[in-house]
Amino acid sequence: MGIYNIDDIEKTDYTIKITAFDNMMKFEKNFISNLGDTLTLQQVVNELVRITGVQFTGNLPAYTVKKLEGFSCREILGYVASLCGGNAIITRDGKFTIVTPKDN
User: Fold this and answer.
1) Which residue, among 36, 33, 44, has the nearest Cα to 80 in the 3D structure?
2) Separation CA 88–CA 98 (nearest Å)
């Protein structure tokens, strides 16, 4: 049901217990960028892709933000998602995207 990264394997005589996480765990790194003082959301997402190795799928609004320092990639991803009015998720093919509520 998706792509997972194995974190731990415990073997006993009769069982194997595997602890695995989706690609969101790759966002537990420091966000370090040298792109400048004002960035578009697309530039921020491109930096997240560069740092984490996790591809992005979707569209982003043409917002600009001030330089982001002192945060983890996961915190930056949450910030981007909140600016888009949505939540960040990992898709079944291992990419990250922003999902937003739909009007009915």
Assistant:
1) 44
2) 5
pTM reported for the whole predicted model? 0.88
Alpha carbon separation from 4 to 18, 19, 49, 73, 74 (Å, rounded): 11, 9, 17, 19, 17
Per-residue pLDDT of 31-54, as tens digits, reads 999 888 999 999 999 999 999 999
CA 73 to chain centre: 7
Residue 94, domain member (yes or no): yes
In CATH, what number is assigned to the domain containing residue 49?
3.55.50.10
Compute the distance between CA of residue 94 and CA of residue 3 in angstroms, rounded to an integer. Answer: 5
The total number of structural domains in the chain stands at: 1
Which token pair is 90?
Answer: 């990992």
